[in-house]
Inverse folding.
């Protein structure tokens, strides 16, 4: 989904970035639930009033979405969870 541009609130856009509410993207990345496997991460831009909120849902951990005020902060949580997983046997 491409989402909708919010032009009347400065936090939803800058000279470098647009954060369209409803924008949704998926990517495959290492799973923090299943060592040695990959899973799908879905990131969505939400309207948190004053500014955007970034929610990442993980296909193999649907009960624990990651929500942050910047995309970098949200993906940092993902990376921390992935790094905390012990390697799969044989890796």
């Amino acid at each position: 989904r491409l989402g909708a541009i919010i032009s009347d609130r400065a936090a939803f856009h800058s000279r470098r970035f647009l954060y369209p509410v409803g924008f949704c993207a998926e990517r495959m990345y290492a799973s923090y639930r299943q060592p040695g496997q990959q899973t799908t991460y879905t990131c969505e831009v939400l309207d948190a009033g004053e500014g955007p909120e970034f929610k990442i849902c993980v296909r193999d951990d649907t009960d624990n979405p990651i929500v942050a005020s910047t995309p970098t902060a949200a993906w940092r949580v993902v990376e921390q969870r992935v790094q905390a997983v012990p390697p799969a046997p044989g890796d």
Observations:
- The first strand starts at residue 24 and ends at 30.
